[in-house]
Amino acid sequence: MKQLTLKGSFAVSGKGLHSGLQINAVFNPAPENTGYKFHRTDLEGEPVIDAIAENVVDTRRGTVIGNRKGDVVSTIEHAMAALYAAGVDNCMIDVNGPELPILDGSAIEYVDKIEAVGLVEQNADKEHERHSKRHPENLHFSKENSGEYHEGVEQNRAGERHVSRPEQFDKPIHNVKNPKFNYSLKCPISWG
């Protein structure tokens, strides 16, 4: 299985949830083996921060990654989930502030924009290719929720990845008591 990047760039803009700043972020194609990187265009020297577990510096009010100098980017989890679910391996994200915009509070705008620009296959193999070949049939991870809804991730040989997560709210929304939503994301994948 080959690495993938975006076919073109896309932008998102909006308020930062924690900073209140107007934030602009541009998601760009990136060379093979780049991974996900955040480029802080608003800081002197325009530092680049790798989106890797070792760079997580806080998780109290969102995922915050940073470098040794103290430069950070927060509220990255929805963008990272959308990129990963779509199969994107390499992406450079230019951001002009300390966090990504909250948008509508979900990953849907990222998903829509990734689908709109499309993906391009690169020459390098995915690092985790050997692991995906171990599962010749459907692969499903699930957590039951009150018997009615479940959340999980499923990959199948038909080339689809389904991510589902239920939401239930204690307060009425538009006069509906205890509304429940179940949403899923279907992304193309390829099996080696």
C-alpha Rg (nearest Å): 18 Å
Mean pLDDT value: 79
* Tally of helical runs: 3
Strand order of the largest sheet: 2-3-9-4-5
Shape: globular
Approximately how much beta-strand content do the residues carry?
A: 35-45%
- Low-confidence blocks of residues: 129-151, 178-192
Order of helices and strands: EEEEEEEEHEHEHEEEE
Task: Describe the model.
- This protein is mostly beta strands and 192 residues long.
- The protein has three helices and 14 strands.
- The strands form four sheets. Strands 2-3-9-4-5 form a five-stranded mixed β-sheet, covered by helices on one side. A four-stranded antiparallel β-sheet has the order 11-12-13-14, with no helix packed on it. A three-stranded antiparallel β-sheet has the order 6-7-8, with no helix packed on it.
- Helix 1 packs parallel to helix 2.
- The longest helix has 10 residues, at 77-86.
- The radius of gyration is 18 Å and the shape is globular.
- Mean pLDDT is 79; it is low at 129-151 and 178-192.
Q: What's a concise summary of this model?
A:
The protein has 192 residues and is mainly β.
